[in-house]
Amino acid sequence: MSGLPRSFRHIQMLAKQQSHTLTLGQLMRSTRSDSNSLIRQGQWLRNQLPIRFARRLDEFLQLPYLVVHNQNIKQVFDIYVDTFETVSDFPNIITDRDEAAFADLIRQQLEKHQQVARLIAEGYREVRHMYPHLRLDSFLDRLFIARISARILMENYIRMRTPAEGFIGVVQKELSPLQVFQELSNEITRLTEAIYGVAPDIEFRGNLTCTLDYIPRHVQFMGQELLKNAVRATTERHKPRDGPGIGFASRSERIPKVAVEVQKGDVHVIIKISDQGGGMPKRIQEEAWQYGWTTADHEEEDDPYSGGTWRKELAGYGFGLPLTRLHAQYFGGDVFMQALPGHGTDMYLLLNHLKEGSPSTEEDDPSTALTETENRSVNAP
Ligand SMILES: Nc1ncnc2c1ncn2[C@@H]1O[C@H](COP(=O)(O)OP(=O)(O)O)[C@@H](O)[C@H]1O
Ligand SMILES: [Mg+2]
């Protein structure tokens, strides 16, 4: 890195401070669009976000030189410094006008942070290409947990300014998992056909009318990663060997379906994604949860005609499974895999209802747990 940020001392100081925790239930209850609530929430974020970003920066500064020197990871570091500095430089929020200006700033920062996951994945891949034994799993876990939490706080604040029917801030009430998965299926099928010339059909079963209160972006993210994996494994295993295009006419006969089954349990909504993509050997079943572990190759990447970038949309960074697990566990859910080597894989995604007053929004609170882990991690040996 070319020198420390100008705010280095300030970062170090704030990184040692205790941040306030907030349960999702508390956040939902404070989600109101009157001017006082907005000013209060704006002021709270203005004080709290710098502490959270200072912690991340403090950890970045402790990474090996070769990691932060990577241009993609450096870019993420710069985004975090920028957020830290612009938010902590923002004056006190007193009037509606101050608050509106602060909301603009948060909106811009959210926009900048959108590319963070891709930049980290790309950077980590490059670094590990040179140093295959380097592993940053716990750093990445903490980075992404903090990212999930900061984005919820920031997005909820932006959304509470313009309340939408059926939403409490970022949480959508009675979201239909079926609808989310159907939309994802269309997109992934199109992408897969563009890459391979064929794609399996995706079939829906179970309790198709079931709904749940959840953050739609999270359901979309997890669903997308699991579906992409199932579709890719199935297509790789069953695609016609004699070149693309030929399978089009009879794709459903040649390629086994991917099944998505939705069920409503007492505590969870359970989404099971089954494929006949060959599964994975036992050893790999555990490794697949590590950041950067992938069987997608990048060999033809430099060939502009190979569709390397198209392929990367489908797989390639090895971040899908670990990030899906992080998102599911964030609200007390989970994801597990039952892979039958030589046949196929069942993935189970368990999601808690995010109802105000339920354990997933009050007791098993992620941001409490998060702050505890964060407090432990600061300058930990
Ligand atoms: N449904 C599945 N069937 C077979 N292999 C899978 C399945 N899901 C994941 N995998 C294996 O786990 C690896 C890691 O998956 P993931 O974390 O999503 O990263 P990526 O898809 O970028 O490779 C994949 O490359 C693949 O080898
Ligand atoms: Mg994947």
Write the layout of secondary structure elements.
Blueprint (H helix, E strand, L loop, with lengths): L7 H8 L8 H6 L5 H27 L3 H4 L2 H19 L6 H18 L2 H15 L6 H25 L5 E2 L2 E5 L1 H20 L5 E5 L5 E3 L1 H23 L12 H4 L3 E7 L3 E8 L6 H6 L20 H7 L5 H11 L3 E7 L3 E9 L13 H12 L4
Parallel strand pairs: 3-5
Antiparallel strand pairs: 1-2, 2-4, 5-6, 6-8, 7-8
The site of magnesium ion (MG) has 5 residues, from helix 10.
3D structure, described in words:
Keywords: ATP-binding, Kinase, Mitochondrion, Nucleotide-binding, Phosphoprotein, Transferase. Pfam families: BCDHK_Adom3 (PF10436), HATPase_c (PF02518). Its main location: mitochondrion. This protein has 381 residues and is of the alpha+beta class. The chain has two domains: 8-167, Alpha-ketoacid/pyruvate dehydrogenase kinase, N-terminal domain (Butyryl-CoA Dehydrogenase, subunit A, domain 3, Up-down Bundle); 172-352, Histidine kinase-like ATPase, C-terminal domain (Heat Shock Protein 90), CATH 3.30.565.10. The protein contains 15 helices and eight strands. A five-stranded mixed β-sheet has the order 3-5-6-8-7, covered by helices on one side. A hairpin with a 3-residue loop joins β5 (258-264) and β6 (268-275). α8 (137-161) packs across α14 (320-330). It is globular and about 65 Å long. Mean pLDDT is 89; it is low at 367-373 and 375-381. The structure holds adenosine-5'-diphosphate and magnesium ion. Magnesium ion binds next to α10. The site of magnesium ion (MG) has 5 residues, from α10.
